[in-house]
Amino acid sequence: MKNAVVIGGTSGIGFELAKILCKNECSVCVSGRHDPCEQGLEFIPADFTGGHLDLDEFPPLREKLCKADILCVSYGPFVQKPLHLTTVQDWQTLALYDYALAGIAVSSVLPGMMERKFGRIVLFGGTRTESVRSYKTNAAYAGAKTAISVLVKSVSAEYRKYGVTCNAVLPGFVNGAKDKSDAVSAHSVAQSAFSLIQNENLNGVLLNVDRGWQP
Questions:
Q1: What's the CA gap between 6 and 28, in Å, rounded?
Q2: How far apart are the C-alpha atoms of 76 and 78, rounded to whole Å?
Q3: Has residue 51 got a pLDDT over 90?
Q4: pTM surpassing 0.90?
Q5: Residue of 151, 166, 155, 171 lying closest to 202 (CA atoms)
Q6: Main-chain phi, psi angles of 167, to 5 degrees
Q7: How large is the greatest C-alpha to C-alpha distance in the chain, in angstroms?
C-alpha cells in the first residue's frame, strides 16, 4: 500500500483526488483547516494562513511527508486584480501559497522517495500557465502558477533516475466559468491527476484540463 499526502485535500479538487486515491488502495492523509469527515481519509490539521510555512510547526504533517510515496499539492488562493491594484499582501500571499508551499513540500518528500526509489508528485498550476504569457487581471496569481511549471520540469529532469515522476495539472474553470461550456468538474480534474500518478512514463507533463479554453 502506497502512502499518499494531499495538501489541500479537504475540499474541491484535492478532496476529489484524495477519495480516488483511497479507493485505489492508498493510505491517504489530507491536510487543511477543516476535517472533511470522509471515511478512509486521515486528517491532519494544517493552517498555512498568516505565512506559516515552516513544517516544523506541523510535526504530524512533516512526518507524513517524510514517508510519502505520493504527494499532491492542490492548496492555493486565487486573486483576480489588475497589477495596479495588486497589494503587497497579495504578492506575498500568492508567492507563498501558490508556489513556495509546493516547493517546500516537494523538497520534504524527495529524500524519502530517493531512498525508496519510487515517488509520484502531482502539483496544480493555473489555467494555461504551461508557458509564459500575459494576463490582464490575474498576473500575480498566474506568475506564481507558471513557476510551478519550472518546478515540475526541474524535478522530472533531475530525479527520474530515482524512480520519481513529477507532473502538473492545469485546470480550467472549475468555478466561475462565464460560459457553462467552459466549466470542468473537480472530479474530472482529479481523475486526470490520478492518471498522471498511475503512468510511470508520464514525467514532466503539464496537462491542460480546460476543454481547450484559450485566454
A1: 7
A2: 7
A3: no
A4: yes
A5: 166
A6: -135, 170
A7: 50
